[in-house]
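Hi P.,

Sorry for the delay on this. The queue was packed all week, but I finally got your sequence through. Input first:
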Amino acid sequence: MLTNELLKKVVAVLDSDYSSYAIAKFIGDASANNINNLRNGKSKIENITFAKLEKLEKFYEEEMNMKYTITVINKKSEEQDPTVLEKGAYTQEKAVEIAEELARKYEGEEDKYSIFIHYLHHDSPCYINPLTGANPTGESWL
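Then the structure:
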């Protein structure tokens, strides 16, 4: 049965910037064309076997989720603030929640600290600073 939650995950995978080949390889599909057909509407999600849906969900959970970490940098010393204990990987929603909480903690001290959400992209890391906007900047600090 295709639940709303599962559908959202499958659509997120299909809308992602992962190549059709990478997705097909992960789910054990013989051809990237099947993924391309889903992406361009030639095939319907409703026609995917449940086994493939489960593999697409696994792809979402293992490859697309829990890819965000948080760092607070002291601008003067350019070192990580050791008092911030937000370690580990988070979903995007949880990372934003933690960063907003930290932003409130450091309110008025924007000239001293920067809060970074690191997105571990499948090709390269990207850094996002919630204090200045969610603009990926490649591999350099904001």
